[in-house]
Amino acid sequence: VAKILARIVAEESPQLVLLGKQAIDDDSSQVGQMLGALTGFGQGTFASKVEIAGDSANVTREVDGGLE
């Protein structure tokens, strides 16, 4: 799935790619990280809030101790 999405990213040149964290088969949260590695994009995992400000994004994410 990540390889297919990487081809789409290469063709479309998006500035931001949003993916879910859960899969219907195993809830392992792999596609986003693999896509980031294949495309060289930075990533924020387990995001619960995304705020876009100009050319940057501030991501609040869920961690074991709360929010980061």
Short description:
The chain is of the alpha+beta class.
Structure description:
Helix content is 29%, strand content 25%. The chain has 68 residues and is of the alpha+beta class. A 3-stranded antiparallel beta sheet has the order 1-2-3, with no helix packed on it. Helix 1 (2-12) crosses helix 2 (31-39). The model has no long low-confidence stretch (mean pLDDT 88).
Record keyword descriptors for this entry.
alpha+beta; flat; 2 helices; 68 residues; 3-stranded antiparallel β-sheet; 29% helix
Itemize the secondary structure elements and their pairings:
Elements: H1 2-12, H2 31-39, E1 47-53, E2 56-63, E3 66-67
Antiparallel strand pairs: 1-2, 2-3
Helix pairs in contact: 1-2
**Biggest sheet character:** 3 strands, antiparallel
Q: How far apart are the first and last residues' alpha carbons, in Å?
A: 28 Å
Q: What average pLDDT do the residues reach?
A: 88
Helix-strand category: alpha+beta
Q: What portion of residues belong to β-strands?
A: 25-35%
Total strand segments: 3
Write the H/E string, N to C: HHEEE
Q: Which percent range fits the helix content?
A: 25-40%
Number of DSSP helices? 2
Regarding quaternary structure, what we see is single chain
Radius of gyration (CA) equals 13 Å
Q: Provide the low-confidence segments as ranges.
A: none
Shape summary:
flat
* Neighbour order of strands in the largest sheet: 1-2-3
